[in-house]
Amino acid sequence: MAQNDHLAVPTGDSQYVTVFNDPVNFNAKHPLNNAWTLWFDNPGKKANDKNWMQSLKELITFDTVEDFWGVYNNVVKTDQLAIGSNYHLFKQGVKPMWEDEANAHGGKWSIQLPRNKTIADIDRIWLYTMLACIGEAFESESEICGAVVSVRKAFFRIALWTRSSDKESVAMAIGRTLKQSAGLHGELEFTPHHETKTSQKWVV
Ligand code: MGP
């Protein structure tokens, strides 16, 4: 079987049975534009550069809608994760760290949501954030590197990592789309991964 045979797009040809035709015996899946990798880390104690990297684990890569749901339905939900842990969903080939070439000049949109007020909603917010990524909801699609949900004692943090940190109008459009897609209330702030000399402060 050729590598991408499972990615066949239905053409009306009856040989393709999708999950909509037969939820059990389907043989064709709906391809995503990109393959995505889910990562997890829980440094266990106060994270530093070294123990953080050691605790980072690559969980799984998927490239179809069906496999995304398979992953989502089988990993621990965000509201059940241990304090200190993070899920990272990044395009295949991009490591969820500042050091990766794709992130080296980038930044992130992020928002911290009080844990006690968000615990009932965080899993839906993370799901919608992931769907915006894999569904390519963002204007400058190539700018998107990945998304992170962080579980902390007092808050959850949602972040969307972008490839560059010096294009204000591009970044603002991405920030607005994230806010809307994930149903986020409150201010999102953009921070470059590395200090810049300019005193830029972008919020949506
Ligand atoms: P964090 O989890 O992004 O920040 O990074 P937070 O939630 O404010 O801090 P926490 O202590 O409550 O978890 C925490 C620490 O993890 C950083 O100070 C780094 O030491 C390490 N770390 C995080 N990231 C995303 C990276 C990374 O991309 N590269 C490296 N080398 N270390 C990282």
TrEMBL record:
GO BP, one annotated term: regulation of translation
Annotated keywords: Initiation factor, Protein biosynthesis, RNA-binding, Translation regulation
Molecular functions (GO terms): RNA 7-methylguanosine cap binding; translation initiation factor activity
Lineage: superkingdom: Eukaryota
GO cellular component: eukaryotic translation initiation factor 4F complex
Signal sequence annotation: none
Keyword Chloroplast recorded: no
Family named by the database record: Belongs to the eukaryotic initiation factor 4E family.
Protein name, UniProt field: Eukaryotic translation initiation factor 4E
Organism for this UniProt entry: Actinomortierella ambigua
Organism placement in taxonomy: Eukaryota, Fungi, Fungi incertae sedis, Mucoromycota, Mortierellomycotina
